[in-house]
Every structure is written in C-alpha cells, then in structure tokens.
Structure of Protein HTATIP2:
Amino acid sequence: QAVVDFERLGEHAAAFQGHDVGFCCLGTTRAKAGADGFVRVDRDYVAQAAELARAGGCKHFVLESSKGANAQSRFLYLRVKGEVENLVQAVGFDRCTILRPAVLLCKRQESRPMEWITQQFLGVVALAFPTAYSVPVETVARAMVACVLQPGKGKVEVLENRAIHELGKA
C-alpha cells in the first residue's frame, strides 16, 4: 500500500509501476469539496492516475463511475463522470472495464442525513426491484474483482447496475 499526495501525483509514479490491473474508486462530493474540488478529484485525479498506471505497465483498468454518466449532461456530477470515462478510455489500456452503479448502499462514518434517508427508502424498494435503483458497495467490489478474473468482452466493457448485481453474485 502506498500513500500518495494527489496534488503532486506525478511525484509518485513509482507507486503505479508493475501492476497488471488497476482499480479506481476515487471520488468525493460537491458538498464536501465544492464544484472545482469535485471536478479535480473525480475527473483530474482519476485521469492522471490512469495515465500513470498505463505508463507503469497496467493492462486492465477498472473504473467505478456512476449510473447516468454522460459527458454531455447538464448535471455536473453526471457530466464529470462521463468525461472521466472518456479520458480513461483514451489512455489506451488493453482492457478497460467501467462500472456504472446506481445509488451505493453503504454505512458511512460521516453523517449525511439525506443520503441516509435515501438509502433507507431504496433499501425497501430493493426488496421488490433489487437491481433497479441501488447496489450494496460489497456487490460492486465483488463485481470489480470478478470482471478481472473473467475473459473480457472487448477492449472497453461498460457494466450497468443490473450487470454489476449479476457479476457481484458470481
């Protein structure tokens, strides 16, 4: 495990050397970092990490993105997620897997009351529609590992929420 300063990520290129697979779940919130900070973390840091990973020999990059990611979106969150997907694909990995989970169900240490209410509601909805609107973070993690262990379905594979559920159960 290497601790890096993302503001000076280029100085930590050695941490990205010699890995066949790269996993990226980096992200923040606009509320926590502001609009500029959100873009810097969710797009710029991720794109730079992908470039360093590729330069270090990474062949397969696995990116956690978001349901609805679209570089043309009017919504900052979805636009940034779409932009970073495009940037990561352009790096030229032999294989790139993009996961687009819906609302992540998880327990957080920090207090986010509206997110907690949403998670409680979606937890109930998931009883009737288990793959429609949410996914437990453990399922996403299992899907990320499983996609590396299975043969690829092309140079770039995008897994939407339903596929994440299915792969996360494998």
Remarks:
- Helices lie at 30-55, 76-90, 113-128, 137-149, 161-169.
- The chain is about 45% helix and 15% strand.
- The first strand starts at residue 21 and ends at 24.
